[in-house]
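Shipment paperwork, digital attachment
Item: protein structure file
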Amino acid sequence: KAIKLNRPCVVNLSLGSQYDLHNGTGLKAEAYKQLNKLKPEGSVIVAAAGNDGASNRVWGGFDVSEQYTYYYGNPIELAMAIPDSAMENLSFKVTSYLAEYDWENNVFKNIEELGSFQSVVPSNLKNDSIYSELKYKDESIAGSLTAKLNNDPVESDENFVILTINDHAEINVNKNPPIFEKMEVYKVTVIGKGKFFSWLQSVPTVVNGTIVRSVPDPIRVGLDSTETWVGPRSDYSIIAPSLYESTFSVGASVNRWVYEDTAGNRQPKPWNRESPGSLASFSSKGPSVDKRILPEIVAPGMHIFSAIPSYYRGWSPRVLNGQYASMSGTSMSTPCVAGAIALFMEKNPNANLDTIRAKFLSNTVEDDFTAYNGDLPNNYWGYGKLDIFKVMSNGIFFGTEQPKIDFQLYPNPAQHQVFTNLQYKKVELFDFSGRHVKTFSANQPLNVTNLAKGTYVVKVQTANQVIQSLLLVN
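Attachment content:
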């Protein structure tokens, strides 16, 4: 449509998955790169960073000798990024354990080993995929393992291996109480030399009632742990396409900590409340495998009141007049950034992704919440919080906090000369497009006689601070 109209556009992608290479290469990454080359110039794709910031779905990134971790649920699907140099030097062994699962306490009991599937050497997958089964004592199938290499036609120094483990036990967490036939727990061991990464794929629990999980603390859930156990992590959890260089990656902050639904109940529950302005616990964290800082920017994404259709039957509480629901996720923060970029491009129709990055990432908000995770940029907040006002004014807009001193700018409105009660080193005037209009040095009268009528931003630099205010010239 944009090409047909010869007008730039902003595309919001509140979607994505871990099912991809994570170094920004591959066929899909190349497709997005080509989209950016299409006319009209200025079209920008904004993509959600993902909601895996606290889900412990990432394993790897360490120097391999012989380490292991645990997964449970069905199906377990691991998307693995393995460098060329490690394809022949690594092997993966999956051992299956049958156990009774206590859903309420998240504990496994009466654990017995079923056996191990055929080991997977990634280099062997270049010739054929691997399929292996385990059976119960009655010869019925207990589980199966499939390993295959995803042959991407775009040249990359990483290989994409998919490891899928199917558990034949019935799981349904939508029932009350939940149904768990004896669940299988899988111990995945990596042996050899080199490095790799793997991402556990999520399943739609609300649709089919199943779960997939990694195990951050084996002892707590009743499993063995030794010094060679390595737990999962939540960094490197940015999803595709947000991790592509040709998209603008957006994380999420907390919009509100408590609200009232249409039934008059205060939401969310006290144990699930997070401070407004803080980083949403679910917001995926970088970097990319090739060490790019991601996400690039953060916008409000937790407890956003979103319009819903009349047939909505979702799990988020209805709010206001019932035509809205409180939604959370980077799927909600990404449209905030897409809308801000659209505003910017109305004023700057020839802007492209490079321009957007330069303007938006140099005009973010830094505060106590961003400082909690260290200096910006970092792999929690990217370059900071979205501030469209600073972007539109080239960084000259003042924030919500006013000076805590007796600062006066008078007369205001003004026609001829303006005065201030402060001793200043320099005074600068900007118009509302951010264009620098005039500079007054120390002790120079602030003469505005020749200025066009309108509102200006005034920056007063004293010996130890910069104070900003508005001035109306009429």
